[in-house]
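Feature request, filed as a ticket because there's no other form

It would be nice if the structure record came with a short human-readable summary line next to the tokens. Right now we just get the raw output. Example of a typical job, pasted below so the devs can see what we mean:
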Amino acid sequence: MEKTFEEITTHLLNYGFVYQGSEIYGGISNTWDYGPLGTLLKNHLKELWIRHFVRENPYNVQIDPAIIMNPKVWEATGHVSNFHDPLVDCKYCKSRYRADDLIKKQHPEIDVEGMDNIMLNQAIKDNGIVCPNCGKSSFTDIRQFQMMFKTFIGVTEEKSSTVYLRPETAQGIFVNFKNVLRTTRRKLPIGICDIGKAFRNEITPGNFTFRTREFEQMEIEFFIKPGEDEKWFEYYKDNCKAFVEKLGLEDEHVRYRDHEKNELAFYSKGTTDIEYLFPSLGWGELMGIAMRGDYDLSRHVSYSKQDLSYLDPETNQRYIPHVIEPSFGLDRLMLALLCDSYEIQKLSENDSRVVLHLNSFLAPYQVAVLPLSNKLNDEAYKVFLSLSKRFDATFDTTGSIGKRYRREDAIGTPFCVTFDFNSLEDKQVTIRERDSMEQKRIPISDLSDYLYEQINKDL
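Raw output as currently delivered:
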């Protein structure tokens, strides 16, 4: 059956993957809370990323930098002066839009890249751009909108210093480059990894968790010798592709797109995006792999007056390292997984089921223990306790066994363990596999190792 984005998001809200933020107070625009299932899935995705890019990679280490940084960091990177969106308001209904987005949606043939405010204003007038809300064609002049959230450090706002919530996690890595080298005693190449929150005051957030003002990134800044950019760029393109393949996304829903020259930042030699085909929405970026040269460290050298060069012990040459940056959007990656795995499966003329075909390792609950009768709850619960030490497990006693299977299918649980009356005698349980719905009998003593092997076999 054909699936729609709205249908999938309704399912995620109903089952507790995601909640509307501050819902009891009417919510707040495009703010979402992850419920129990969404939090488990998110943690498993982070764990898989750490496993692939940190634990199994001989070059990489992980840090956890602060969200609030010295504001001079953002002066050095250009965020204070340049991190703005072109803002325009409808004079009639007061709706607010990004001018470039407004033009692109109504006239996709117009190339808005590189247009300044004067050119964007003229394009709105020349092409009869109308307000999507009221249909009128009368807008304010474009003004620049600072996308960083401001806050203050100090006792009172009047006597305090302005600081910003970080708009990206990468700079926490760059400013700690020398600290990491010193304390780990590593040599180049070295990758410094980080998972953390970033904040952008987006004018037009939307499409559920695809674009939000508060989001989570999984980033690597890989520091290398100048001249080795192409070699390590190809390495990370292959490495990131291998990671995405572990997630189990359908091949036809994933593409690898190299940026055209006019899309590249002025300091970048090349960038490749991994994109996903979202139902009803089209292609959206999940991650980017960029060659950033020595731009970031050089900017921090210039503004901080600190020496961030590297003395190569093999050549005795001193230089500013170049950087390859693989950057994942965690929330978008989760949304892609949930969209891709969702299926309404017709079983017969009168029977169907909703199932999330999530990778077994990533599924919120990797196993559900289901006693066939309430009389068996105590003994079945002992099985659950033994498994919950090793896996994220759930224990469900409500409803018929068939209804419980359907509930677990709908949240993506790959294995259901049924404890029946025979289990008291033969010390075996029935394992039911989500995708095939096949069942097999297995000794309780072998259960944990069997599940571990099945859950990790594709990783």
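Something like this underneath would help us a lot:
The mean pLDDT is 91.
Residues 294 and 322 are 4 Å apart (CA to CA).
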